[in-house]
Write the structure tokens for this entry.
Amino acid sequence: MNREQKIMKRVQEHFDYLKEKGFEIVFIALQGSQNYELDVYDNDYMSDIDTKAVVLPSFKDFVYGKKIFSETLILENNEHIDVKDVRAMFETYKKQNVNFIETLFTEFKIINPKYKDIVQPLFDNAEEIAHLNINQAIRCMAGMSKEKLKALKHPYPAIINKINKYGYDPKQLHHILRMNDFIKKYAILKRPYRKCLIPDNKEYLIQIKKGILSEDEATELAIRTDEDTNDVKNWATGFNDRPDVINQKGIEILDKIKFELLKLKFKEDIEE
């Protein structure tokens, strides 16, 4: 199998896992390094497969006001499936979180055939949704860079081995650099979101992820890059003084799809 086939096989495994658990899946989409063409599979580094899935509630759960489902499931191989009720996922899209918006652009996704006609406009209008609130999207990018900077040397259990080996987590550094590339393309160059996802310096970022820099070099680069990202954010948003402009077309697309998905699911539940 080639790279694409191997990735899709794993995405399918995630889909099947959720199906066995009884979830009513709308679609599942890959989130992570494969979408940025930064995945690595060698002796030095192995990229995992993480996905995000949109699911539907039952009519009974809706009527009785059961808490909207939103949980991250961790598989035995430590891969993650972020599972969200359509209502929660679509609100996240409205908040412009880059980790979620990217699922609208990935080639690695599986759509439940039952809902394909309803949900296809979500992907056809991905650029509209990715530019639903440009100021908010830019703030999210800068915020993610800041989060990765804070995590650079933080001894989280999952990365403590990297901290002990390098003095920092190279993966966090590569994310800081990636967000800097991303925000400049999105906010300054006005490139399509799909092109913003793929960094121009892919090979360099892969080497960064493998830990080619010393602790001092990494720390200095991380701080300097995050400051530059924050400067772009301030310039693009007018130091947060420029009012947010909401793309109503994007809102309408999300609301219509959500309505049609829930209507179909509830109709089926009632008729059972």
